[in-house]
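Hey Z.,

So I finally got round to the NAP thing we talked about over coffee. Here's the setup:
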Amino acid sequence: MTRTRIHNFSISLDGFGTGEGLSRDAPFGHAGERLHEWMIATRFGAPILGRTGGTAGVDNAFAQQHEPGIGAEIMGAGKFGPPGWQDDADWTGWWGPTPPFRTPTFVLTHRPRPSITMEGGTTFHFLDAAPDEALRAARAAAGGRDVRIGGGPTVVRDFLAAGLVDHMHLVQVPIVLGRGVRVWDGLEALEEDYEIEVVSAPSGVTHLTFDRRTS
Ligand SMILES: NC(=O)c1ccc[n+]([C@@H]2O[C@H](COP(=O)([O-])OP(=O)(O)OC[C@H]3O[C@@H](n4cnc5c(N)ncnc54)[C@H](OP(=O)(O)O)[C@@H]3O)[C@@H](O)[C@H]2O)c1
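And the result:
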């Protein structure tokens, strides 16, 4: 049975997965890069900014789980581009000609457009569909592998609320954002559905894994 997974999803101590004031110059708004500094510092994350090296410890061990076994991703319109990208016919995402997804990637948007085939194996498909319907489409395209829910926080929250997430790796970063888009709203008692484990890393972040209870 394939699973629906979330990896490396970073939140502030007060539960925000992005800041306020998103724009082309500020993909995370007032949060800046603070939510992802832990990952960029790792061997897995360093190449994202064109760096070499990186740490090989606990943070890296979690971060590298992002890729294996994934056959498709689902992301929200807010991850794919800054507010208003739907008005730019040439917008193909933040990631240049070779996006890192390397699988079919489904972008949930109320303003779908034709699919775009990128270099390196990523094809963006644009879907106006409920979470369960989007997951069916992603599963059908995933070649028997798992589907990753890539964020942002609105989409993560919606898939959790719909009971569609089997495994979630959250990273709590020791910052307080105060405003932005929060993951937890409306998910009261989510812990009843999951086995939750917590690992504190020397870097100062806390890794939380949520695995759906089988009984
Ligand atoms: N913390 C992390 O690890 C992490 C990970 C990934 C991204 N991010 C950040 O998160 C931010 C984006 O998050 P967000 O919560 O603002 O937005 P999001 O979750 O990426 O996308 C939400 C948007 O997707 C569209 N959408 C969602 N469900 C839909 C459905 N069922 N049918 C059709 N359209 C649907 C809607 O956009 P429209 O109505 O405009 O179509 C909705 O407003 C960015 O700053 C990004 O960089 C953070």
